[in-house]
């Protein structure tokens, strides 16, 4: 989650499309980056079922991306928080865009 800023970018990378979402929040520790894609995972201790979130969002997002032939990764954002990077193959027929 962001403190004050979220930066979204979309661009072509070869035959793929890449979406990046950067925030200036606390980030995600390197050893937790694969863990956040597991169902019911909440890294933020302040989040609970009563305060919002059940830990399914990133798991569902990853499943959708993978089913469409893409990848999703988390890294450090240049603005200080986390970067979510989604890469999806472009449609074969450019008219479908």
Q: Secondary structure elements and their pairing?
A:
Layout (H helix, E strand, L loop, with lengths): L5 E8 L2 E8 L33 H11 L3 E6 L5 E8 L8
Antiparallel strand pairs: 1-2, 2-4, 3-4
Q: Which features does this protein show?
A:
mainly beta; Heat Shock Protein 90; four-stranded antiparallel β-sheet; globular
Q: What's the short story on this structure?
A:
The protein is mainly beta. Helix content is 11%, strand content 31%. The termini are far apart.
Helix content: 10-25%
The low-confidence runs, each spanning 5 or more residues with pLDDT under 50, are none
The overall strand count is: 4
Distance between the termini: 30 Å
Radius of gyration over C-alpha positions, nearest whole angstrom = 15 Å
What sort of overall outline do the alpha carbons produce when their principal axes are compared?
A: globular
CATH superfamily: Histidine kinase-like ATPase, C-terminal domain
Helix tally equals 1
Q: Beta-strand percentage? A: 25-35%
Category by helix and strand content: mainly beta
The CATH topology is what?
A: Heat Shock Protein 90
Could you give the order of the helices and strands?
A: EEHEE
Sequence of strands across the biggest β-sheet: 1-2-4-3
Name of the CATH first level? Alpha Beta
Mean pLDDT: 85
Q: Could you describe the largest sheet, including whether it forms a barrel?
A: 4 strands, antiparallel
What is the CATH-assigned architecture? 2-Layer Sandwich
Overall number of domains: 1
């Amino acid at each position: 989650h962001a403190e004050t800023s979220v930066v979204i970018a979309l661009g072509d990378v070869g035959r793929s499309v890449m979406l990046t979402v950067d925030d200036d929040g606390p980030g995600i520790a390197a050893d937790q980056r694969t863990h956040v894609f597991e169902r019911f995972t909440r890294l933020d201790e302040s989040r609970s079922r009563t305060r919002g979130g059940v830990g399914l969002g990133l798991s569902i997002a990853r499943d959708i991306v993978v089913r469409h032939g893409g990848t999703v990764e988390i890294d450090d954002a240049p603005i200080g928080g986390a970067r979510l990077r989604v890469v999806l193959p472009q449609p074969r027929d450019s008219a479908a865009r």
